[in-house]
Input
Amino acid sequence: MEKILFKHIDVPDQYQIDTYIRNGGYRALSKALKEHSPDELIEIVKKSGLRGRGGAGFPAGMKWGFVPKDSPKPRFLLCNADEGEPGTFKDRTLIENDPHQLIEGIIIAAYAIGAHRAFIYIRGEFYFGARRLEQAIRECYEKGYLGKNILGSGFDLDLSVYRGAGAYVCGEETSLMESIEGNRANPRLKPPFPASVGLYQNPTVINNVETLSNLSHIVLNGGDWYAGLGMPKSTGTKIFSLSGHVNKPGNYELPMGVTLRELIYEHGGGIKDGRKLKAVIPGGVSTPVLTADLIDVKMDFDSLYEAGSLLGSGATIVMDETTCMIKVAYRISKFFEHESCGKCVPCREGTRWIRQIMGRIENGKGREEDIELLRDICTNIAGKTVCPLADGAVVPITSTIEKFRDEYEYHIKHKKCMVDLGERFV
Amino acid sequence: MLNEATQKKIVELKNRFPGRKSAILPAMHVVLEEVGFYNRDILKQVAELLAVSEMEMAETLSFYTYFPKEGVGKYHVQVCTNVSCMLCGAEQLAKYLEEKLGIKAGQTTPDGFFTLTEVECLGSCGTAPVMQINQKYYENLTRAKVDEILAGLREGKEI
Output
């Protein structure tokens, strides 16, 4: 399959505007501004079937369509580059290696929703990526792709990079807005939704890096072309971040609906050291774990949902037969305790309690009643908080109990792991 | 205290955003780059430069983990131990760093050179195990690579 987003990802100077233009860049922007009205662009993206690549999979065109047409308030476009879901590292590559592909998408999206101010909210740790974007933005102002009267169209847009500061919850859209406003990044209760009341209380659209990076290609080739790629309801390609016990970890751009088997064995080179596959987390740590027998599941939004999990961000974490699932679930529980923002009691108290119980099981002090206690706590957290962080915190616990209950029981009874990772750091 | 060049950079941020407090995080990124840490005096000075209250600064900053306070070592070694890195030996990497530096995670060497912190996912899972030192990532780490990196920093090689 021909790559779309990664077509030029290995070109050494692709991050420079001249190379990007030489490889076909900014033709889509010119086409969008000169040949299409904003409403036509929204229709094209709706037709493409493009679904948000940040994790939720919400149709991008529909999201744009929610911005009220008659509001006199200024509108904002936000690019979510907070990439924090453990296992995910695709946006970093898109930003560092092909920043103009993202910026071109941002300008197109801003034009479509009528925004004249846009921010790229990038996690603080991505220092190199932020510098790359700032450089690329400077180049765009010099060439007239940003600023006043872009390419003579009369459309104005200012774009800047906003660096985060180490909080996972900022990947949640309303937290991200709070963060840009200079506040503690506690999520907001919805509704109202950002499309009507977002950044600085103004209509706001927020899209993921990968989502926006697709736009120039959709504008150039048409919505129907994109809709013909991948699966009927999960169109296009997806970048899968493959990590863990595989021979060739990395980012792979493949059509939506590729099987997990193909991803791991054909592209990822199979399991390290010839070991057996035990489990896979298919969409980042907030998505339910899959057992090895589901190796032929198709990797797209609907197929993974039907298989009892989620595509999430496409972060595929592969675990071999030596992986202790209690250890994995315990580590994830530490993560969610650390990242809970503290606004909602069930999450703040619940994530800590889960971590404590997981810790005692892992450390050989588990009690027989702990499995049921964990399930009970999880039931009392899920769906009872302002943002989905808590739902994500519950999933690794409930799904490992469901799929690997024998390991929990073994751990509690024998006070040790059923299997051991061994020495992996050479 | 902040020198004039740093102060100028912070003042320039003041009117760049539609919201009054939006310049707080960008200003702290400037402080991190120019000074490497912050303390009460710096916080107070930044607040004055941005015309926000000291309390507003503290309220916002206490939410975020990225800006180290005074006392952090010259080199802030942040090792990821989240799942993908853990599967590739991050626990052993963290232990190895503790042994090499002679400190536990969360501590600073007596000479003020290194601080070791265990952090959450750095978004570099395909090149695990990974650590970040100040603003730079070090990927696909092995014992030999860690030895080389730490020895280089001790000799004052720029990172």
Summary: The two ends of chain A are 36 Å apart (CA to CA). Residues 89 and 244 of chain A are 13 Å apart (CA to CA). Chain A is about 40% helix and 15% strand.
